[in-house]
């Protein structure tokens, strides 16, 4: 009968093999999905995802319509939270936000 440490070593070896097999199969699965998306004209947005890279899960951009346009074309919805720098600068300069309303 195998010892506990021998069985653990075998388990770790099998887990490493399984992870390698997953990585090997993953590229084929991704290629297949991309091919089917192209064939049927499906976009990431159609799947309910976001095409942007680097965004953390659960975090999303505001979907509120912009109410203000900054001096360089920046948009702001005027919602709660931290104001954009251009808004803080305008307020600090004594300007009225109504002049930036869209």
The number of helical segments is 2
List how many beta strands DSSP finds: 2
- What is the radius of gyration? 26 Å
Mean pLDDT, nearest integer? 87
Largest sheet: 2 strands, antiparallel
- Fraction of residues in H or I helices: 40-55%
Structural class: mainly alpha
The low-pLDDT segments are none
End-to-end CA span: 78 Å
Share of β-strand residues: under 5%
**What's the shape?**
elongated
| Strand neighbour order, sheet with most strands | 1-2
Q: What number of domains?
A: 2
| Order of SSEs | HEEH
Brief sketch in words of this structure:
By secondary structure, the protein is mainly α.
Q: Which descriptors would you attach to this protein?
A:
102 residues; 2 domains; 2 helices
Describe the structure.
The protein has helices at 4-40, 85-92, and strands at residues 68-69, 75-76. It is mainly alpha-helical and 102 residues long. It has a two-stranded antiparallel ribbon with strand order 1-2. The longest helix has 37 residues, at 4-40. The chain is elongated and about 80 Å long. The protein starts with a helix and ends in a 10-residue tail after the last helix.
């Amino acid at each position: 009968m195998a010892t506990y440490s021998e069985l653990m070593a075998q388990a770790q070896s099998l887990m490493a093999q399984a992870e390698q097999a997953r990585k090997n199969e993953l590229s084929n699965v991704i290629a297949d999905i991309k091919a089917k998306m192209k064939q049927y004209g499906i976009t990431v947005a159609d799947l309910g995802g976001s095409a942007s890279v680097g965004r953390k899960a659960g975090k999303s951009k505001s979907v509120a319509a912009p109410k203000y346009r900054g001096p360089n074309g920046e948009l702001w919805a005027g919602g709660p939270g931290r104001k954009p720098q251009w808004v803080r600068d305008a307020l600090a300069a004594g300007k009225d936000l109504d002049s930036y309303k869209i």
